[in-house]
Amino acid sequence: MSRDAPNDIETTMTNHVRIADFAANLGQTVTIRGWLYNARSSGKLLFLEIRDGSGIVQGIVSKNAVSEEVWNRAAALTQESSIIVTGMPREHPKRPGVYELDVHDLTIVQLTQDYPITPKEHGIEFLMDHRHLWLRSKRQHAILRVRHEVVRAVRDFLDNDGFILADTPILTPAACEGTTTLFELDYFDDGKAYLTQSGQLYNEATAAAFGKVYCFGPTFRAEKSKTRRHLTEFWMVEPEVAYATLEDMMVLAERFLSFIVARVLERRREELKLLERDTSKLEAIAAPFPRLPYDEAVRMLHEAHLAGKLEHDFVWGGDFGAPDETYLAQQFDRPVIVHRYPAQVKAFYMEEDPERPELALCMDVLAPEGYGEIIGGGQRMQSYDRLAQRIAEHNLPREAFEWYLDLRRYGTVPHAGFGMGIERCVAWLCGLEHVRETIPFPRMLYRLRP
Question: What family does the database annotate (predicted)?
Answer without folding.
Answer: Belongs to the class-II aminoacyl-tRNA synthetase family.
